[in-house]
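JOB MANIFEST
job_type = single_chain_structure
chain_count = 1
residues = 352
[input]
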Amino acid sequence: MAKKAENVIVGISIGDLNGVGPEVVLKTFEDTRMTEFCTPVIFANVKIISFIKKALNLNCNVHGIDKLDQLVPGKINVLNVWKEGVNIEFGKNDDVVGGYAVKSFVAAVDALKQKQIDVLVTAPINKYNIQSDEFKFPGHTDYLHQELEGDALMLMVNDGLRVGLLTDHVPVSEVAQHLNEELILKKIHTINKSLKQDFRINKPKIAVLGFNPHSGDNGVIGREDEDIIKPALKKLFDAGVLVFGPFSADSFFGNGSYEKYDAVIAAYHDQGLIPFKTLSFGNGVNYTAGLSGIRTSPDHGTAYDVAGQGVADANSFKEAVYLALDVFHHREEYKEISKNPLKVREKQEEKK
């Protein structure tokens, strides 16, 4: 039996306290209707969150707890992950503050692993100031890949537009070294499964962008598309995966070709994220597909330039919460269908 919407526990890692993360989190739940959809719990410190709320003149109440079994539905719960105070200087890059972002994130991931929360929504971090001897990960996704079961894949989502990556935080000069048949097969199988179980798409159509300009022009401009990508896509298509390409990346979004597919796979970070953010900035969501746990985040960073001014747009974070809830319910439904497809079909017939 799927959980009722109001019982879904949304864990929130607070991100960089000097950035816009706390602001967009609190603004999201200023609308009390949000707590009708879920029970939020922020992994941080209630005194710090109360200070930020007051500093930004936000109209919401927070409820401090010391254990997750003290959660109160209908409240903005704040789990005290640490007790000490933190010096907040909005807009400042601070290694100490970065350490607290890591504490929040690690505690939230642990709660997700222990099934004490149902989904995780992460506020933006600064990838530079989170680095330490204890935490040596480029960002959220790499740590999640280590801690959760499955193969992580960054999937940017805005309504029907979904853009995934073969390689993510890899220098452009090294992308070609990472491209191989094994990687392509793994990533596309991951997104194919996610489209089915997380987005309720029975027969997903997946487009793959070429690596080189004009997809290599039959080998004239690089051999990666001919020698690596095309053979891998053929193998996938022959196995029943509806995958198409490689398509020339320069015109694929501009001419609207992306609208014909359920997801688009780019070869590297900027090839996929530049067109995605051009089309969707402020409304997009970063979803980590392929893992046993559900994690989403907004499509922006710490935005130090506007932090502490009360002007940050919370829409992307709110969309991240909505997507996490949708995926949770879609997975519950998918489990039910997979367990007894005949029974589900009978129920559907009864409704007609």
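[summary]
The two ends are 22 Å apart (CA to CA).
The mean pLDDT is 92.
exit_status = 0
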